[in-house]
Amino acid sequence: MKNKAQFTTGPIARTLLLFSLPVLGSNILQSLNASINSIWVGHFLGEAALTATSNANIILFFLLGVVFGVSMANTILVGQAVGARDIAQARRVVGTSTTFFVLLSVAASAFGYVFTPEILLAMGTPADAAPFAIAYLRIIFVALPFMYFYNFVMMTLRGAGDSRTPFWFMLLSVGLDVALNPLLIFGAGPVPALGIAGSALATLIAQSTSLVAMLALLRRRRHFLWLPRGELSLLWPDLAILRSLVVKGLPMGMQMVVISSSALVMMSLVNRHGSQTTAAYGVASQLWTYVQMPALAVGASVSSMVAQNVGAGLWHRVNSITRTGLAFNLAMTGALVALIYVFNRHALGLFLPGDGEAIEIAQHINAVVLWSFILFGFTIVLFGTVRATGAVMAPLVILFVSMWLVRLPFASVLSGPFGAGAIWWSFPVGSVVSVTLATLYYLRGTWRASHMLAAGSVPAAVPAGVRANPRS
Fold first, then answer.
1. Residue 348: which of 329, 375, 366, 325 has the closest Cα?
2. Which residue has the higher pLDDT, 197 or 404?
3. Residue 462 CB neighbour total at 10 angstroms
4. Is 50 exceeded by the pLDDT of residue 61?
5. Are the C-beta atoms of 390 and 446 separated by less than 8 Å?
6. Could you tell me which PANTHER family the record lists for this protein (predicted)?
7. Helix, strand or coil, per DSSP, at residue 115
8. DSSP 360-377
9. How far is CA 430 from the centre of its chain?
């Protein structure tokens, strides 16, 4: 396919940059889409409706977070097979993963649709928001199989070295979602006004349309990962591949759970210091979402690139890819951090009144926290490298230690004597711990000897000399 990057040959820096930019663009589009949809719901349907979408989106984030790990395991398996020029193995991975994702998504969709009221009740959704949340979430559960498979196809293409095609179809999906939201919420002509259900229906139509269009393009181009009618037997699960998807995917999915759950606990600590502090923290967090995007894009790109080089047995390129990823994180995340420091008040003023107490608090929060996202970005890039070999437990343990055993206790215990300032300083402290542990594992850990499949099912392991000298 013409958009496929050559990960195992040529200049590393240029290839990594050109691959990372569409991934970054896709992340930005998703965040902008969510923000625009929230504006429509919040401004025109009221606070109860916005509360409903917030509760529903927490559930959706959890569901997508769990499946993210399995998607990433599939991406790495495809990448290693493509790097080894074993296209037959790549197609076996796609066949097994397709069956797994379809069955998983249909089961989750059916369960969620039936038990939507009970799920929202267990979350403590406010009574005035519950009817909105039920209407919204039930359509989201109907859309879930399309969402799962949409993300699966995009990540599979990235594993094969193509990040441009997913970007263009993400652009199509977001464009449709943004255009359909007001039409389906308020109605026009023969289209009835559906209220909050219209916002969810817009997402369903946008993602399913983009998915069908992307699959049609892959079929027309005869993409090497497209399974024609004569090869549908590959959809029968390969047990070794299925085991890898679960055993390697679950720890990567649990990383998302560790991050999201610690964020919920952190919010409860912030809430103790009053509404002004909570508002300031909430606005600062919105800016942090964008600050983290370059590192997440580079980390995912490093993982795809390393996976292909591991599959090809080109271990001498792995350290170069990692160093390049670290440099890109420093340049891109560092530039965003510097920009916000220079225009700190102006950036926060987009969300907060310029003469209120909250903006002063938010400025202080950013002054303490922002720089630490450069360190956290280094951690993400190092994780991207080690997980591409199949080493998935160490990143999970490191995240758990830095967030649950260091950051949260630091914030909780010290916020008593030192106030909210302890919460803000817990972010740099946690980031220093995570980057230190990640660096030690990268330099001295056993990740080079890890594998995604059972021994004998993957390309030959690292040459002995490379294992003996991690800096080679």
1. 366
2. 404
3. 18
4. yes
5. no
6. MULTIDRUG RESISTANCE PROTEIN YPNP-RELATED
7. coil
8. HHHHHHHHHHTTHHHHHH
9. 20
Asked if 16 and 325 count as a contact pair (C-beta separation under 8 A), the reply is yes
**Average confidence (pLDDT) over 465-469:** 37
Count CB atoms within 10 A of the CB of residue 204.
Answer: 19
Measured distance CA(286)–CA(366) in Å, rounded: 11
pLDDT tens-digit map of 238-275: 999 999 999 999 899 888 888 878 887 888 788 888 87
Tokens of 349: 């003023």
Q: Measured between alpha carbons, how far is 360 from 418 in angstroms, rounded to an integer?
A: 18
Residue 464 has pLDDT above 50, yes or no: no
pLDDT at 292: 92
Amino acid at 397: V
CA 294 from chain centre, in angstroms, equals 12
**What are all long-range contacts of 468-472, with beta carbons under 8 Å and residues at least 24 apart?**
470/442, 470/443, 470/444, 471/319, 471/443, 472/315, 472/316, 472/319
Which tokens in the block code for residue 291? 């600050």
Per-residue pLDDT band for 435 (boundaries 50, 70, 90) equals: very high
Q: DSSP string covering 130-144, please? A: HHHHHHHHHHHHHHH
Return the number of other C-beta atoms located less than 10 Å from residue 166's C-beta: 24
206 burial type by CB count under 10 A (0-12 exposed, 13-18 middle, 19+ buried): buried
**Beta carbons within 8 Å of 15's beta carbon, 6+ residues apart:** 5, 6, 7, 305
Q: How far is CA 216 from CA 24, 53, 117, 207, 226, in A?
A: 25, 32, 37, 14, 10
pLDDT for 32 equals 83
Provide CB contacts within 8 A for 185, sequence distance 6+: 40, 41, 44, 45, 193, 194, 195, 196, 198, 199, 202
Cα separation, 339 vs 294, whole angstroms: 14
Are the C-beta atoms of residues 381 and 325 closer than 8 Å to each other? yes
Instruction: Give me the residue spans of the domains in the chain.
Output: 18-237, 251-472
Q: Which of 32-41, 111-120, 369-378, 383-392 has the lowest mean pLDDT?
A: 32-41
CB within 8 Å of 28: residues ≥ 6 apart: 290, 293
3-state SS assignment for residue 191:
strand
Amino acid present at 405: L
